[in-house]
Amino acid sequence: MPEIWDDILKTGTFIDANGKKIEITLADLNHMVESFDPKKRDVPLVIGHPKTNAPAWGWVNQLRVNDNKLQAQYKDIVNEIKPVLALKQYRKKSVSLYPDKTLRHVGLLGAVQPAIPGLRDFQFSDSDTAIIYIEFKEGHLMDEDKEKDKQNTINRLRAQLEDKESKLRERDKQISDQSEQLKKMTVEFSEFKQAHRKNEIATWVDRMIEKGKALPSWKEQGVIEFVQGLDQEPMIEFSDRKTSQVKWFMDFVEKNFKTQDMFMEMSKNEEHQQTDRTGLTGCV
What we know:
Layout: E1 6-10, E2 12-15, E3 21-24, H1 26-35, E4 44-47, E5 53-55, E6 58-66, E7 69-75, H2 82-86, E8 92-97, E9 103-109, E10 121-123, E11 132-137, E12 140-141, H3 142-210, H4 217-220, H5 223-229, E13 234-237, E14 242-244, H6 245-256, H7 259-278
Parallel strand pairs: 4-9
Antiparallel strand pairs: 1-7, 2-3, 4-6, 5-10, 6-7, 8-9, 8-11, 11-12, 13-14
Helix pairs in contact: 3-5
């Protein structure tokens, strides 16, 4: 697989396998490239994180930095491991660094180790003290991706919440506007009904005046407003019927009032009062 450049590390801040925060800068990646020398120190491709010795399934042949990522080319890849690499039949990939941030090995985590008798073990000359392990999945750093996924989820949920809150505010405003409009229409309709009723009562009073059943002065004395204030619902109950205050009053006026009779009655009352004042009551 000499033509394939494999992403093995990139810039960022990560938590290593020992729980320590590690910052990888572009300068660190360049340092790993510059310090890489297969003649002085081999960098094996292994399965897992071996501490001392383990089968080497291949070797890092070259390193380069591309788009803030450290990439590797391998050599002498064991045939049996090539499908594992090609099909990415491993859960995670990782790198191990020395304390000076030079490359120690590239590890495949979760891969099934092929049974190959006689495969040469690679012997690490150093101890495992202060070795840095950084894991990632399919060319992406695991810890950073988890943090990005978490932040993306938070941002997505926050955006959904803000969108729902915005829609709720818009709906509440629409309800409030509709409620205000309904109140306005209710007031306008009530005013229209009152004006219409007042006009009907005024028409009725004029008709009663024309028929001689009401005096013109009644209008000035507020008979229209009086009738308008009477209840229109059936509130007065008789043995054979129910009627409203308005209907009863109008029927009473139409059946019992005549202005001529009222004038005659008033004239008699006035004459009687004058007779009482002169003391001529009963004299011939």
